[in-house]
TrEMBL record:
UniProt keyword list: Disulfide bond, FAD, Flavoprotein, Mitochondrion, Oxidoreductase
Domain ERV/ALR sulfhydryl oxidase intervals: 65-165
EC number: 1.8.3.2
Record-given protein name: Sulfhydryl oxidase
Protein location: Mitochondrion intermembrane space
Entries under Gene3D superfamilies matching the protein: ERV/ALR sulfhydryl oxidase domain
Major enzyme class: oxidoreductase
CC terms in the record's Gene Ontology section: mitochondrial intermembrane space
Keyword check for Disulfide bond: yes
GO MF entry, a single one: flavin adenine dinucleotide binding
Major location category of this protein: mitochondrion
Length: 175
């Protein structure tokens, strides 16, 4: 435990240690971490340090870097909401079992460990509803909204999930 605290102290602020004791990119928001990268201690004026900090924050990463927690989150939500939107209206027992197994694996396998822990807690309070497309899409929307709420983001209007993840808007702009 003291060893963990020591390792965390040696890391740039914002970088999270994973369960393997190593820096976990998938648990870290890169832009928070990048804010610290532009500052060079003792490199001149406070303004120069602030400008360097901002440049660090704005620095774009190469496209093939490992995902941070935001990129991983966006990609995972895209897959999950899309899978829910294409889930059968009347699922077979096999569909139900497979979806339940996928969802129940997330608190164990999701690479951002504290995200996975929160999700496990939420799923205990509110178990997945795999009884049909509308029910599953609504359940997932509620789960995502719990995360949005915790992160201080706006809640999504769950009546729009099928439009957002399957049909696209009625104005045809996504066709
Ligand atoms: C299972 C899981 C748990 C997570 N837990 C955490 C956590 O504990 N801490 C943390 O910092 N990050 C967590 N994340 C990541 C976080 O949810 C976001 O993915 C990340 O912050 C990027 O956010 P974003 O604003 O780009 O949009 P995202 O939240 O990734 O959303 C992507 C798109 O989905 C749509 N959308 C938004 N809300 C809903 C909804 N309720 N229903 C349907 N569609 C919606 C919007 O069009 C949005 O642009 C988690 C991700 C996942 C998949």
């Amino acid at each position: 435990m003291a060893e963990d605290a020591k390792k965390q102290q040696q890391l740039p602020p914002g970088m999270v240690i994973g369960p393997d004791g190593k820096p976990c990119k998938a648990c870290t928001v890169f832009k928070d971490f990048a804010k610290t990268k532009g500052t060079v201690p003792g490199s001149g004026s406070k303004q120069a340090a602030t400008a360097a900090t901002m440049m660090g924050a704005l620095a774009t990463r190469p496209t093939e870097c490992p995902p941070d927690s935001e990129k991983l989150g966006r990609s995972t939500w895209t897959f999950l909401h899309t899978a829910a939107a294409y889930y059968p209206v009347n699922p077979t027992p096999q569909h139900r079992r497979s979806m339940l197994s996928l969802l129940q694996s997330l608190p164990i396998l999701y690479p951002c460990n504290y995200c996975a822990e929160h999700l496990g807690g939420e799923m205990q309070k509110n178990p997945p509803d795999v009884s049909g497309r509308a029910q599953l899409s609504k359940w997932l929307c509620d789960v995502h909204n719990e995360v949005n709420d915790r992160l201080g983001k706006d809640k999504f209007d769950c009546s729009r999930v099928i439009e957002r993840w399957k049909d696209g808007p009625a104005d045809g702009s996504c066709d």
